[in-house]
Amino acid sequence: MKQATVYQAIKLSENSSLAVDDNLVIEAPLQININSESYTVVMRTPGDDFELIRGLLYAEDIYKSTDELVIDVIESSNDFSAILNVTIPSNKLRKGYLNKRTLLSVSSCGICGKKELKDLSTTEKPLIKKHNQSINITFDMFLKMNNLQYLFKLTGGSHACALFDKNKKLLTIKEDIGRHNAVDKCVGDLINNNKLKQVSYMLVSGRVSYEIVSKAFFAKIPIIIAVSACSSLAVDFAKEFGICLIGFSRNNKMTVYANPQYIHHEY
Questions:
Q1: Is residue 222 within 8 Å of 163, Cβ to Cβ?
Q2: What pLDDT does residue 47 have?
Q3: Who contacts 242 (Cβ-Cβ below 8 Å, separation ≥6)?
Q4: Burial of 63: CB neighbours in 10 Å, binned 0-12, 13-18, 19+
Q5: Does residue 109 have an active-site annotation?
Q6: Cα–Cα distance, 208 to 110 (Å, whole number)
Q7: What is the DSSP track for the chain?
Q8: Which of 254, 252, 258, 176 is closest to 216 using CA atoms?
């Protein structure tokens, strides 16, 4: 099963701008049905879907029998999305299912917990470009964020999100063990202080997958800059949502995966 794919990007460094083909890990939705009724959608890298479902149902206290689990492929698409149905005798369904407990109540993921693939779509219009950015300023913003990651300095076990306005002024920074939680904390903080409309840049300390892009989109934040990698679905939806998506922003280098017209390349 293919687990990575090639995307075009622009790699920027202090003295160069180079168009490249870059390998990204594939992120695609898997809809899980139980007894022909939609249960949840999880984002995953294709491959080992049966094992993923078996482990998930065990962890969610839905099915813990050692008997063979019947899993049928209902739909499989070229974009690696899929719908699988799990057949479980009613007397084998455990509390996790009988209590109607779904991943939505336990996941910090912005998409996991949706019940059907059609729930992934949105009628919102793409973001409109607000301004251009001088690309070298972003490293100063990361320095500001890094200096304020007190929990990470203490434990080495937290992620951070920082939101900046168009003048690169820090509006808020939050840390959490979960990447998505840190984003939610920042957005919530600015909603409470009526400052969300001032945000132009979202900086995140880890990788970017679909849920981070979706959170930025609904908060109307046009530029995401990440320390680490971006998934294939993050790039796809950043392009569709009108978000400039930048990854691997470290050591005075970065890779632009979506909407490079938002930024200036010169130093």
A1: no
A2: 87
A3: 126, 127, 128, 129, 222, 259
A4: buried
A5: yes
A6: 12
A7: ---EEEEEEEEEETTEEEEEEEEEE--EEEEEEETTEEEEEEEE-SS-HHHHHHHHHHHTTS----SPPEEEEEEE-TTS-EEEEEE--GGG--HHHHTT--GGGT---SSBTBSSGGGG---PPPPPP---EETTHHHHHHHHHHHT-HHHHHHS--EEEEEEETT--EEEEEEESSHHHHHHHHHHHHHHTT-GGGEEEEEESS-B-HHHHHHHHHTT--EEEESS-B-HHHHHHHHHHT-EEEEEEETTEEEEEE-GGGEE---
A8: 258
> Does the pLDDT value for residue 169 go beyond 90?
yes
Cβ–Cβ under 8 Å, residues 161 and 202: yes
pTM: 0.76
Structure-block tokens of residue 107: 């996941």
Please check whether residue 161 is in contact with residue 203, taking contact to mean a CB–CB distance below 8 angstroms: yes
Q: What are the pLDDT digits (tens) for 98-142?
A: 765 444 333 334 445 555 556 556 667 888 665 566 666 778 899
Average pLDDT of the chain, as a whole number:
84
Helices 232-241 and 210-218 meet at what angle, rounded to 10? 20
Q: Which two tokens stand for residue 24?
A: 């990204």
User: What gap in Å lies between CA 192 and CA 172, rounded to an integer?
Assistant: 12
CA distance 172 to 33: 40
Rounded average pLDDT over 203-229:
92
Q: Which one of 109, 112, 230, 244 is the catalytic residue?
A: 109
Side chain identity, residue 36: S
